[in-house]
Amino acid sequence: MSAELTTLDAAELASKIHSREVSSVEVTQAHLDRIAEVDGGLGAFLHVAGEQALVSAKEVDGALTAGEAPVSPLAGVPLALKDIFTTTDMPTTCASKVLENWVAPYDATLTSKLRAAGIPILGKTNLDEFAMGSSTENSAYGPTRNPWDTTRVPGGSGGGSAAALASRQAPLAIGTDTGGSIRQPAALTATVGTKPTYGTVSRFGLVACASSLDQGGPCGRTVLDTALLHEVIAGHDPRDSTSIDAPVRPVVAAAREGAGGNLRGVKVGVVKELHSDSYQPGVLSSFDAAVAQLTELGAEVVEVSCPNFEYALAAYYLILPSEVSSNLARFDAMRYGLRIDEGDMSADQVMAATRAAGFGPEVKRRIMIGTYALSAGYYDAYYGQALKVRTLISRDFDRAYEKVDVLVSPTSPFTAWKLGEKVGDPLAMYLSDLCTLPTNLAGHCAMSVPSGLSADDGLPVGLQIMAPALADERLYRVGAAFEAARGPLESPSEVAVG
Question: Which parts of the sequence belong to the Amidase domain (predicted)?
Fold first, then answer.
C-alpha cells in the first residue's frame, strides 16, 4: 500500500486523507521512503525534512480525527519546495556555496501559505544556482538527473522540483519561473507547471534573481493538481510591493470544466515565430498533433504573428543580468552567508575573495554582463534598448489577444539533452528557453502540459499554453481539456528511477 500511495495524484490523495481512508502520516512516509529509495541516483533534493514533514502530517490527521474540516483542499498532501524560498526550519541555499547551510530568520509568504494549508513540506529541491540556468547543472551541490533517462538533464532552473514529481518522490512541488524555469523542466519531465500572472503569487521571501521577471508557481502531475496548488499559494501580499490586489482566479473550477473536453468557442492562436524548422522534428510533430487535438475538441485555431518575439532572447539576456547584478550585490560577506577572511584582509578584499569562492561560473557570467550593460556609456545602448524591446513584445501579445483567447507553442524547442552537452556553450543553453521568455517579459501567465513523447528519442515534449495577465483560468480550461483528450502518459521506467 505504501508504494501505491506514491502513484496517486494529489487530488486523489487529498480525497483519501480527508475521508480518513489513509492518513497524512502514511502518505508522507510513503514519499519519504520513495525519496530514500531513488533520490541518491537523481539528486532532486538538497535537503530532506522528514521529521518536520511528519509532524505537519500528524497535525492534519489529529484535526481530522477530532472532526474538524480540512483547512484546505490539499491538507495532508506533501510537497517539495524549490530551495529558493526562505524557511525557518531548514536551510535556504539557492544551490550556492555563498549560502551553504544558511537558515533564514523568516518564512517566505508562500512557505507560510503552505503551512497554513496543512501541506507537509518534504524538503527543498535542487536548482541552478540562484535560478540561473536551464539544466540544473549549475547547482553548487551537483546536478539533478532526469527520471526518464538519468544520463540527461531535467531542465532548469527548477529541475529538482520537476524530477521529484516525475519520479514520484512528491505529488506536488513549487518552482519559480524567471524565463521558463517552471515550464521548461515540466516539458522535459512530462509534468505540469504553471507560471502565474506576475504579481499574483507573493515574492516576499523568494530570493531574488531578476525582480521584474521572477514568479513562484505550482507544479504537479496533472492540471487539476496544479490548479489546486495554484489557489493555495496565490493572493495579495502587502509585504510584496509588486503584489497585485486582485481576487484569486478561479483556476480549479476552470480545470474541472476543461476536463469535460469541450473547447467550443475558444480561439487558439499558434504563434508563427515559435514554430521553426530549427526545432527538433519530434517536438514539432508532437506539437502539431496537439494543435489538431485542440481543433477536435472544438477550438478555433488560427495562426498569429508576434514579430518582436525574435528579439526576446537578446532582450531577456540584458534585462535579467542587469537585475542580477543589482540583486546579488547583497551577498557582500558582511551580513550573512559565506565569508572568506584570512585575518589581514580589507573589507574589499574579503568581499572579492568571498564572491570569487561563493559564486559559480554562470552566476559570475551574468553579474559581469549585467554590470557592463548598466555601466556609464552603455546603459542606453544595451539595457535601455532591451526595455524598449520588452515593450514591443508586450504590444505583440496585446494585438494577438485581440484575436484569440490563448496562444500555444512548443514549451521547449528540443527534448532533454545529455548531461554536460551544453555546459561549454552558454548560447546553446539559453536557446532552450526560446519559447518561454516572451511571457516573462510581458508579465503574463503560461503553462506547460505534456503533449506526449517525441518520435525521435522517446522523451517527453511539452505543449505551452499562454494567456493574458489575470486570465490564468484560461490556461487551466484548455490544459485540462487537452490532458483529458490526450489520455494517460507512460511513466519513467523503474530502471531509470529505481
Answer: 26-475
Query: Mean pLDDT, to the nearest integer, of 219-246?
Result: 98
pLDDT of amino acid 495: 40
For residue 86, what are the contacts with CB-CB under 8 A and spacing of at least 6?
Answer: 92, 104, 106, 107, 108, 111, 205, 206, 207
Coil vs helix vs strand at 228: helix
User: HSE-up of 363 (CA within 13 Å, CB side)?
Assistant: 29
Amino acid of residue 481: A
User: Of all helices (H) and strands (E), which one includes residue 303?
Assistant: strand 300-304
Residue 91 contacts residue 102 (beta carbons within 8 Å): yes
pTM confidence score: 0.97
Domain range summary for the chain, segments of one domain joined by + = 2-306+399-497
Helix or strand or coil: residue 136?
coil
The DSSP letter of residue 99 is: G
Name 488's Cβ contacts closer than 8 Å, sequence gap at least 6.
Answer: none
Which is the catalytic residue, given 23, 56, 72, 82?
82
CB 493 within 8 A of CB 32: no
Known catalytic residue: 403? no
Neighbouring-strand partners of residue 267: 300
> Smallest Cα–Cα separation from 222: which of 494, 496, 497, 489?
489
Query: In this structure, are residues 86 and 207 in contact, taking their beta carbons and an 8 Å threshold?
Result: yes
CB neighbours of residue 314 within 10 Å: 15
- pLDDT band at residue 440 using 50, 70 and 90 as cut-offs: very high
Q: Is 322 a catalytic residue?
A: no
Residue among 157, 286, 322, 451 flagged as catalytic: 157
Residue among 202, 201, 177 nearest 127 (CA): 177
Beta strand pairing status for 192-195 and 216-220? Answer: antiparallel
- The one catalytic residue among 112, 181, 286, 448: 181
| pLDDT at residue number 53 | 98
Distances (CA, A) of 462 to 239, 257, 339, 412: 34, 22, 42, 7
User: Residue 30 is placed in which grid cell?
Assistant: 510513503
Q: What DSSP character marks residue 18?
A: H
Q: Is 157 annotated as catalytic? A: yes
**Class (C level, CATH) for 2-306+399-497:** alpha beta
Cβ atoms of residues 352 and 364 within 8 Å: no
* 329-368: b (≥16 Cβ within 10 Å) or e: eebbbeeebbbbeeeeeeeeebbebbbeebbbebbeebbe
Mean pLDDT for 470-479 is 98
